[in-house]
């Protein structure tokens, strides 16, 4: 059964969809963007034309023309009696990427593989035969890898034993396991606004309603709003990225950490702290981990940003009782973390200081290059320079980044429009730009951005920015 997108939901996702183009074209373009960046799924059924007319206060002719345009362009399939279904061209050919054929993909905040990775793979291959007598199913993680991860927390001043660690297939997998364990139907989950889009996907997949707490580059975490939401919505869990928040690059102050940890513990909300980007310090310096402020914090970690996204090794740090519950739930999703990758990860954990120093150097270069390029080519864009992480969260002030992403595709540049990071269509004027690329690629990307930014227009917006909930 295909998911039905209601007229109201589509209106919400569309946000500020109007542009200088005729209304039918602008509507079709925006629906196409929502499909391409994952806000609407391939296979989802659009509302009937009449329903969308009501939701958007548009004429039937406009909506019919928009649907017809999408059909002609191959993005919509209509069958009499069963409605109109979105189709992502390329899906049927088994392509995986949302940006097939992109020459330059700024939609992902990644960095190149750590130079020591190839040697770690070779070393693991040599060790591997010794493990072949084992049945190979490993739901908790190899003891020496868990011990090495525990040691990395102790090095940050946080007492941790191997029993507090479960190794997972990346942090995204860890988040899914934790969400499926801690969340029960009907409860709310608190997220930051903006937040990491695939966390929103995970929470949608368990059927959760989210409540949001604003994070801004000017004011940090809105503590008063967080407290209000924790009290009013009693969320079972809150998903936070205190260290180099994705996408803003912000870090929580010690006061913010203390305040949120205490409020959550008092009110029975479990803080799920994603530290996937926590080791990406450029020029900030050490901060105490969130788990230092409350024993109930569940922390997620990963080698994805530090070593390589393709390694697929992450972990959960939590109390033994929580990990025991996660362990009971885990076989429903997978039967363990691959051994070979764990051997590679064990070797890499020994090289932690080298890996962080290497990343820090590369990210500093990338950040400074990107800031320089943007200041020169797009001086009207408002940049706050982060002191860590992988990206800039740019306030374009007046560009529709959904329209920009669409235009960028035709130039071979993959971009994610701002609203993918928000709840309910917020952040239309924001753009996340990763700086983990080489100088030439950054220059090429900014060149394209500068060219298309003037084409998509900087006309004043007709609607106020969507309210932050
Ligand atoms: C904040 C955050 N959490 C989780 C992930 C996913 O991490 P992994 O590749 O370890 O699954 C990412 C990757 O982009 C991320 O930025």
Task: Decide which structural class fits the backbone.
Answer: alpha/beta
**Strand adjacency order, main sheet:** 5-12-11-10-9-6-7-8
Q: CATH class of the largest domain, please?
A: Alpha Beta
How many DSSP helices? 15
Task: Report helical residue fraction.
Answer: 40-55%
Q: Beta-strand percentage?
A: 5-15%
Integer count of domains? 3
Description of the molecule:
Strands 5-12-11-10-9-6-7-8 form an 8-stranded mixed beta sheet, sandwiched between helices. It has 15 helices and 15 strands. Helices cover 40% and strands 13% of the residues. It folds into 3 domains: 87 residues, Orthogonal Bundle (Arc Repressor Mutant, subunit A), CATH 1.10.10; 110 residues, Aspartate Aminotransferase, domain 1 (Alpha-Beta Complex); 234 residues, 3-Layer(aba) Sandwich (Aspartate Aminotransferase, domain 2). With 469 residues, the chain is an alpha/beta fold.
